[in-house]
Design a protein that fits this description.
CATH architecture: 3-Layer(aba) Sandwich
Number of helices: 8
Radius of gyration: 18 Å
Strand content: 15-25%
Number of domains: 1
Strand order of the largest sheet: 5-4-1-8-9-10-11-12-13
Largest sheet: 9 strands, mixed
Order of helices and strands: EEEHEHEEEEHEHEHEEEHHH
Distance between the termini: 36 Å
CATH topology: UDP-N-acetylmuramoyl-L-alanine:D-glutamate ligase
Number of strands: 13
CATH class: Alpha Beta
Shape: globular
């Protein structure tokens, strides 16, 4: 019985740390190279499980998916009924990252690309309270999102960076209509409005109940019909500026960790901010636990 069902990418992340992002026809040297298990779906699900949230993951990986990453998912406590292995390459992303969080990325969609046939993904929503749809082939999410909506599940629609290049207006509006919460960052929000010909975020209330906009070092904003809630970014301890890949995913997991424990939205958002901060302090090497979050949140409050 899962509280959260997550649909999204499981990637092999190749992270290149550089002093500055190169401009056109320019080259920069790599200071450090990292390879990690990543992907928005995988990160949200693993972080939520680390925070004590019962979670299912629905995703497709290729026949070259590393055994060590498969074991990592299996040991995380996730329901992996809907982790499907598809003939072809596992999704891979190359992320060029500078201190402070600015990034460029190139993705090989692999078996999550439009040219691959994938099995039907069902199980992540069946017994969950919340269903989170993030990156992936947009058409793949239409049927499970509609089924989850008809079954009375609460749905978060979080297309992330793929909003810019994989979504048509029709598919975006269809998934938004099924959602209770639309999640984006402040760079993705204008694209969402453009897809529907809107000029103001509150027009999205014609389709969804809440809008959560993450804003990096300025925290996050939850826009609701009757009030707007702002949560600050929890300060990251230590002077070292860290690589930030995955912090936004952990923020989302932290929100679910609070909602899972029946916390009101303001407290759940603070949990999300704290979870992201703790993840950054560990340079992405460890997802925080709920006890970590509670302890830091109490210190931050006082």
């Amino acid at each position: 019985m899962a509280f959260l069902g997550v649909y999204g990418h499981v990637n092999v992340d190749h992270i290149l740390l550089v002093p500055e992002l190169p401009g056109p026809e320019r080259t920069v040297s790599v200071k450090q190279s990292l390879i990690r298990l990543g992907g928005t779906g995988g990160n949200i699900a693993r972080a939520a499980a680390s925070l004590g949230v019962s979670t299912s993951l629905a995703a497709c990986v290729g026949d070259d998916f590393p055994d060590e990453y498969r074991h990592l998912l299996e040991s995380s406590g996730l329901d992996l009924t809907d982790l499907k292995h598809v003939p072809g390459p596992t999704p891979k992303i190359w992320i060029v990252s500078v201190p402070g969080g600015a990034q460029n990325a190139i993705i090989d969609q692999g078996v999550m690309g439009d040219s691959f046939e994938r099995p039907k993904l069902d199980f992540a929503w069946l017994n969950s309270d919340w269903v989170h749809f993030t990156t992936g082939a947009p058409a793949d999410w239409l049927e499970p999102a509609q089924a989850a909506s008809q079954a009375g599940k609460r749905i978060a629609f979080d297309p992330a960076q793929e909003l810019a290049y994989r979504y048509t207006s029709r598919v975006f509006e269809t998934l938004l209509n099924d959602s209770d919460l639309f999640v984006c960052n402040e760079h993705e929000l204008p694209r969402a409005l453009d897809l529907l010909g809107y000029g103001d975020a509150r027009q999205l209330f014609d389709h969804t109940d809440r809008i959560l906009v993450t804003r990096g070092e300025r925290g996050a904003r939850l826009i609701q019909p009757k009030e707007t809630l702002d949560v600050a970014a929890c300060p990251v301890r230590g002077s070292k500026r860290v690589e930030s890949t995955g912090a936004g995913d952990v923020f989302r997991a932290g929100l679910y960790a609070g909602l899972f424990r029946s916390e009101p939205w303001p407290e759940a958002l603070r949990a999300a901010s704290v979870a992201a901060s703790l993840f950054l302090e560990n340079e992405g090497n460890r997802f925080p636990s709920w006890s970590d979050v509670v302890e830091r949140r109490e210190e931050w409050t006082t």
